[in-house]
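Protein modeling request. Please complete all fields; requests missing the sequence field cannot be processed.
Requester role: graduate student
Desired output: 3D structure, C-alpha cell encoding
Chains: 1
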Amino acid sequence: MKKISRRSFLAVCGAMAATAALTACGGSSASTAGTAASGSTAGSAASGEVFELKLSTTQTDTSMIYQGLQAAADKVAEDTDGHVKVTIYPSSQLGGEEDMIDQALQGMGIAVLTDAGRLSSYVNDIGIMNMAYIVDNYEDGMKLMATDTFKGWDADLANNGIQTKSIDGCEVQYTSAVSSKIYEVCEYVSKTEHINLFNMVICGQAWFDKLPAEYQEVMKKDFNDCAYNNAQDIIAAQADMEKTLTDNGMTIVEVDKDIFREAVKPAYEKLGWTELREQLYKEAGVEA
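Delivered output (288 residues):
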C-alpha cells in the first residue's frame, strides 16, 4: 500500500464507464420544472433584473464534469445577456449535498449537481437509476430518462475513512478518480463498470418560477445541451483517463462482469424494483 497522504479514499476502486449531467428542476410547488407554476411571480426579461444561482458540486474544479457545468453557466449568461448568473462552487464549498438539496427544494437560489441515489430520499423509485447494471451505456440511460415513468418522478420531485483505515475501498468513476488524484492512496481499479452515473442539476421551483419564461427555456436548453456535449467528451476520454491512472502506478483489474450481474439481481428483488426495471425497459425500447 502506498503511503496515504491526501484524501479520504482507499484501496480498491470500482470504475464506471461514463458519466453525464442532466437538468431536472425540483421544488415544493405542484408544477413541474418545464412550466412556470400557476400564479407564478416570474418577472419580465425587459426589466433588466439579474437572477443569481449558486450551483454546488462535489466535483473539483479540475474535473471534466465541472468543465461541463461551467460551459453551461457561460452559455446561460451569454444567451440571457448576463441577466441569469450561475456561479459554480466546486468541492462542496457550499456544504454537504443533502443540505444543498434541501435548500434548493425550499426555493433558495441554490442548485446542486446530484444523482438518483440522493434523490431517492424524496422519490424512492428514482433510485433505480443508480442500480448496478440498470443500463450498459449512456444512450440507453438517456432512453430510460425519456420515459413517462421517469418524467413522473421529475414531477414528483417538483410537488474521512482511509486515513483512519475504517474503510477498505471506494466506488468512483474515472472523472473523479483522475481529478482527485486517487492514485495517491489507491493501487487497484476493479473495473466492474456497474454504473453509468447520470447526474442531475436540480434547483428549487420557487426560484425557477421567478425567471421570465424565456430565461426558463434558456436554462433548460443550455444545461441539457452542455450536459450532452460534456457526456460525449467524458465517454471519449475514458481511455485517456485510464492511462492517467496506470501511468501513476495503478493496476486495472478486468473482472468477469457476468458474475457481478448475477450477484446484483437479488438487490432488485429486495428493493421491489424488478417489475419497475422491466417497465422502464419496455417504455424505452431497451433490451434487458
